[in-house]
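Run: sequence + adenine -> complex structure.
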Amino acid sequence: MKYTALSLFPDIIDAFMRHSIMAKAIERGLVAYQSVNIRDFAFDRHKVCDDAPYGGGAGMLMLPEPVGRALEYVGVKNRFESRPLSGGRDGDEETVVAPAVASAVKKRVVYLTPSGRSFTQAVAHGLAAEQELVLLCGRYEGMDQRIIDAYVDDEISVGDYVLSSGEVAALVVIDATYRLVEQVISPLSLEEESFGRGLLEYPQWTRPEKYGTLKAPDILLSGHHENIRRWRLRKQVEKTLAFRPDLIKKGLEEHRFDAETRKIIDDIAEMQRGEDERN
Ligand code: ADE
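>> structure
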């Protein structure tokens, strides 16, 4: 998997790429990374990359030319033009643009925006299967629509809130996808984690057995693997019912749960009904 990040602040992403498991994945050749500073592709001597939106409204938009030129530099083609739009505007200073990189690799251009489709574990799996993700990070109030129309394949939101920087959203996408790339982490760890089976993860404890007055649950110290497995599954269901009842509803509708999980859900619902009747 190759990640190419286009940003006005590539340092934010570069710092993450130098750390821990990611650095190892890059060293092992499982992940490749390139960052490009969009400002290097500004066409005027002041390196301006934003302007006010036509029709009025708050904030500034990213100019199409620097973004388009940065995309062409990394080998992304404009859907509507047969030749790269590499020049400056009439009357402006011309800067030399590096030639577009010729490549046979299929690139998926993802624009990070709060107006995109929701990013989920399923979307992460889909993106992790791509050969190259070109992550376009917005700043200001957003991007000129012609860039999206001409170059972007996918618009993704990492949540129903507005970030001041697309870089943080790009990092969410990078972090959630690179760990799904084959050999980056063990398949067993992936299988056990939240969302993998439509339930949140069970709570966990480690040494020491006693932390102040709090003790780790006896069952986890019992060494009885089958009891521990059953207990953990019940904890998963309880936690998911408390924090994400929507996941339980969806899992039941889509027949994602096995008989054991359904029985636990029924038992808890039954207990809840009993308690409601007593109150
Ligand atoms: N840029 C700003 N907010 C965002 C969000 N929620 N998701 C993706 N990109 C963003």
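>> summary
The chain has two domains: 2-185, 192-278. Residues 192-278 form a domain with the Trp Operon Repressor; Chain A fold (CATH 1.10.1270.20).
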